[in-house]
Amino acid sequence: MEDFRREGDSFVLGEDGKEITARIDFHRSPDSTIVIDHTEVARQHQGQGVGLLLVDMVVALARKEGAKIVPVCGYAKKILSKGAEYADVLKADHS
After folding, report:
1. pLDDT tens, 59-73?
2. pLDDT for the residue numbered 53
């Protein structure tokens, strides 16, 4: 059974010990901002909302830590910039 889990500075979807089928990678900037670098979803999971779930996992982490997010990844940028529900975590000067 595939499960979402955290692996370092990534959230992944996949069976433990097997190939990862979706992931979102991020890092921390010196001011503790969470920078989303990359989102990837395997073909068999595309169009099922998996990418959105991964973005939401990073959003939940940012809210828990009181951090802001800068999306470098095009997919994450698209999701975070169009929803007012993300305004509290989106860093204002993230262009």
Report:
1. 999 999 999 999 999
2. 95
- Give Rg (Cα) of the chain: 13
Question: Measuring CA to CA, how many Å separate 22 from each of 25, 44, 53, 56, 66?
Answer: 10, 10, 10, 14, 26
Domain that holds residue 47: 3-82
SS3 at position 95: coil
Residue 51, domain CATH: 3.40.630.30
- Give the angle subtended at the CA of 49 by the CAs of 75 and 76, to the nearest 5°: 20
Instruction: Give the HSE-up count for residue 33: Cα atoms under 13 Å, Cβ half-sphere.
Output: 18
Confidence band, pLDDT 50/70/90 cuts, at residue 27:
very high
